[in-house]
Specification:
alpha/beta, 2 domains, six-stranded mixed beta sheet, four-stranded antiparallel beta sheet, 10 helices, 10 strands, binds adenosine-5'-triphosphate, ATP hydrolysis activity, Urea ABC transporter, ATPase protein UrtD
Amino acid sequence: MSTPEFALYVEGLTVSFNGFVAVNDLNLYVEKGETRVVIGPNGAGKTTVLDLICGRTRATSGSIRFKDIELTSLSEHRIVRAGVGRKFQTPSIYETLSVRENLEVSFPRGRTVFGALAFRRTADVIERVEEVAGQIFLADRLDDAAQLLSHGQKQWLEIGMLLMQEPELMMLDEPVAGMSVSEREKTAELLNRIGQDRSMIVIEHDMEFAQRIADRVTVLHQGRVLAEGSMDHVQNDPRVIEVYLGH
Ligand SMILES: Nc1ncnc2c1ncn2[C@@H]1O[C@H](COP(=O)(O)OP(=O)(O)OP(=O)(O)O)[C@@H](O)[C@H]1O
């Protein structure tokens, strides 16, 4: 049996807020190319773990290693440059810009809105924008203002903005919240496709959706790992049923 290659090593990760320990001595290992779904009751620490990995929140102790880079001491933008992309629950797209412009500003060379609008639409940018627009089901909406998109399409656009940076680790917080049934279907298809080339961590409450995208599932409870493994394994764990699934 070959030894798994991990993209992300989280060890002994702890953060406390005024004495309240939100993440408690957490270990988490995500393989290259793996899609890990993180579930758990409200307040379990799921969002805080993503905040710690992307540098938005500083750890009290512990280590987060990604491709041999220690992330706990890096700034948020350096973590992005190291190849970690994060999508928050509420889309942070530019409503008045077109879909095309939103994707262009996310191209690594055009870091700011102004910089991106000023930069030349070189063949590689045009090609990348069209490729990503196709992936996120918005190829025919490139010239529409982002504000005209549905809620689900805005979520896809933000995923597309992350894809422009070609992250090796992509983290998504409840990507299908508020989506219609057909949008959920397409999002599962999208995540399964983009998850083939990178590692992903997805926080999800919808178990049916989680089942469709997860390689493995981690259940958090009170800042610790309560259970981990295949969806079938965690769904049948009596402790998981007691604290989460039974409610
Ligand atoms: N900056 C902060 N200051 C103080 N407390 C915080 C802070 N961030 C998170 N917490 C607390 O840490 C705990 C974990 O919160 P977190 O948002 O990570 O949970 P979660 O598992 O994502 O929950 P949900 O499913 O409700 O989103 C909560 O009790 C929350 O109130």
